[in-house]
Amino acid sequence: MRRQRSPGNTTAWSCAPGSLRGYERDGAVADPIRRLTQLLAKLPGIGEKTATRLAFFLMRAPESYAQELGQAIMETRRSMRLCSQCCGLTTEATCSLCADERRDRGTICVVAHPQELLAIEKAGTYRGLYHVLHGVLAPLDGIGPEDLKIAELLRRLQASAVQEVILALAPTVEGEATALYLAKLVKGTGIRVTRLASGVPIGGELEYTDPATLSRALEARREL
Which of 147, 195, 197, 206 gets the highest tally of CB atoms within 10 A of its CB? Predict the structure, then answer.
């Protein structure tokens, strides 16, 4: 491995992305790279090869970029909190969507994760409120109703004039089980319960569904 100078970075290394083979004899270099690769590989959708390429990219990048990236991650973790109403991610006590008086407060769209909320918003059709569960029921993984934001949802329904709850959960085994569980609870309050219509592929994830398909699914939602 040959050290070289690069603009704005006096510690860059001229090494190509790929295997760590050949660097293992230099434990002082290989161990930090291996650790970084293992941490990057834990990110969703990132395999070992991609994690290795990212690790070497970060090592070759200007030091200022690596510092800004680390600072952005830590600042985001420190500043983000759960919205007091919808349990979505926000930097304030109440998120901008819940605080927007122009939103339809008679409808709540229930999603499993914050990224699915963003996907539906991107579709541009839905103008009601949201509720984020932060997961779905998965008994085999030890995730039960008490691990999700279900109690918070029920409290919202009791304290508001909501007329319809849309269960926008992915059509997976866990998503279907969660939808049926919630439908039974919400129907007991006399509130209308609907699901997204066909168009969202079975076994698919909402965050990867295109906006047009999500819009049609919302508009043609069905009773549960």
Answer: 206
Indicate the pTM of the whole model: 0.69
Given the structure tokens 């039974």, which residue do they identify? 184
Domain positions in the chain: 2-79, 82-223
What one-letter code names the amino acid at 130?
Y
Paired sense of beta strands 192-195 and 104-111, if any: unpaired
Distance, CA of 89 to CA of 79 (rounded, Å): 10
Return the SS3 of 34: helix
* Locus of tokens 């994830």: 205
CATH of the structural domain 2-79, one choice from 1.10.8.420, 3.40.50.720, 3.40.91.80, 2.60.290.11: 1.10.8.420
Instruction: For residue 59, give both structure tokens.
Output: 């090592």
For the segment 9-59, what is each residue's pLDDT rounded down to a tens digit? 434 444 444 444 444 444 444 688 899 999 999 998 899 999 999 999 999
d(CA 207, CA 187): 27
DSSP-derived 3-state class of residue 112: coil
Show the tokens assigned to 193. 């319960």
CATH class (in words) of the domain with range 82-223: alpha beta
Digit-coded pLDDT (tens) for 142-175: 999 999 999 999 999 998 889 999 999 988 889 9
CA–CA dist 165, 154 (Å, integer) = 11
Per-residue burial over 172-191, b if 16 or more Cβ lie within 10 Å, else e, is bebbbebbebbbebbeeeeb
Distance CA 165, CA 150 (A): 13
